[in-house]
Specification:
- Helix content is 40%, strand content 12%.
- The protein has a ten-stranded mixed β-sheet.
- The protein is built from 25 helices and 17 strands.
- The chain has 685 residues and is α/β, with parallel strands linked by helices.
- The longest helix has 24 residues.
Length: 685
Amino acid sequence: MHEILPEQVYEEQLRAAQGGGGVVEYLLHRAKPHLPPWLAGIGTGLASLPAHLFWADNAAATAGLTLASVAVTGATWWAGKATTSQRRLHSAITVAASTSWFTAAAVAGPGAGPLPGLYFIGAPALALTWNIRQIMRRNPEGGGSADGGLLEKVGLAKTQITGSTVAPNKATFDLQLPRGELTQDDVAKTLPKLASALDVPPNAVRVTNDPDSASRVQLTIVPRDLLKNTVPCPGASHPGGSIADPVHIGIYEDGTEAVMYFPGDPEAGRNAMHLLVMGMTGSGKSEGGLTALAEILTRRDVIVWASDPSKAEQTLGPLLPAIDWAALDMKSTKGMIAALQAVIPARTRWLAKYGYKQWVPACAEVQADGSPGMPYLIGWFEEAAKTIRETDDDVFTGIAQEARSAGVSLIVSMQRASANQVSTDTRASLGSSWVYGVRTERDATFALDDDVLDAGAAPHVWKDKKPGYCYLVVNGIPETFWATPARGYLTAREYLDWVVLAFDPVRMAIDHTTETAAAKAAGRQFTQRTRYPVPGTDQPQEDTAMPDTTYNQIEDDEYEDFEAEPITDEVDDEYDEALDDIDPEEELPHPRQVIHFAERPPAAPKIQLSPTQARHAMEELLDEFEAEGRTIVRPADFMEHCDRHGRSRSWVSGQVAAFVIAGRLAETTETGEYRIVRDDEDEAA
């Protein structure tokens, strides 16, 4: 059964009786709610007559009635401590006046002295005060009760409810605080008491401050948890769209989809997003990250660099074929950080060249001069605590402070972003946060601002008991959602494989500007990064293991020279005799025989390799030189093996230069000589 509110009872009392009746019946029905005080006054007067008959001139009765009057008044005052101070005082005065008059009338008689006047004036006056109070309790304009009710109990006396919205599982109340007496912070402090009074979870009661008034707030109450059932991922929200479109990652408790935005939007005044993802083991943080990455990889104009030196392929495994660079060990992760630092100025120069103040979807299109576009870049660092611990707690600060204008978003994911794990400068530079269940309330303060926590956000309540529950405090999301619980989608492995395969033709390749800057900064960690095969195929994606420094490739046809037979003395004598017999004036005889020489033998077939395969052949050749123990090589050493890659000598020279850029070779003091850089030298560096 639904609980009947006092307001509904009052409306029912005011409603006329059903089934006919005249004016008198209507008036009596409307008067019924106001009759009890009057009936109590009449009853007191009538009861004084038999009381005087029995207790007149009785000293014991006089004492007893006096004590009873005091006791009833005291009991009324004691019983009213749970109500408002106004109701308590009003009730005590009414009982004290009534019992005092009744005691005097019972002893001296109702008609003695001033008692009749006190009765006929005082009784109606008291009854009217209760009628007025009853009428004032219903405040259609204010929407709340004057006595405060529940709000009074939790310390919000004089607070008025100025509006309300009630949904099946959500009630929202607009509160007007007494000016100069209560603040928005006072309301935030009462949330635990409100949750206790309403018998709901601590994070089921939230408050949103009105930015235009310090004396107004909005109170939200959600009595039932609608997120307890997992929600499977519904699929790509914008298949083949731009990364500028919202990325859908889950749903809020009211069914609204939870989204985040990565690039900035000049028209909306939104900056690009850097994100801190935090949650304890078992909170569903990694699952949420996979869902977001899968959604990102359905877009056409974004590339992803992802790092996980702790779990390697365990987390990122299904999405590796779609990720441009996956750093799954600490060495390559350090290279990725160096590459990110290097690509920022290179990308900003490119944006400035084409007149962009920040990255927008038009950057990924072919530019006016015919140059290819530049995709958005997302650097995602899973288990970043290990990376920070083995590098520097300030390693991400510079990237976070500078990357937004370069069309780069930085995502740092870790279990606990304490000051021991990551610097406060880095936390402040990240700006946005995505928080799952944490162990303690203090842990929540590392990722959520005080105003979000004061509004009712409490991830420490979930811990690891509710995987997938989270708070999303990101750019472009209204503040009313910052303290609203959400739950990430549950993404199946089959869906991740489908994303990798179905959107492979859609995703852009890395642009030349970013690729060149990364190759110079990270060397072979970037140029020889592992490329994973797309599901259902045996071939990896087109490899970018070496920057294409191909110049004018001239395919030279090489022919072998044929040796003539040696000329002997016998042949010379025959030749001289033949010359003596020839008359220079004689007409040349007609030919009697035609000699056919053998056809020129065909050239040996050239090895046909793709550019990628040719680069691999060059790399294998350099590995062979290194395995032989050679330390110095020359371009001529590679040119001796041109038949292995089917390329011209100019192409080979270009590849040697590319080896120098990639860090495989180093220049020496001798022109045309290069030193082979070994792996252990890279590690030492």
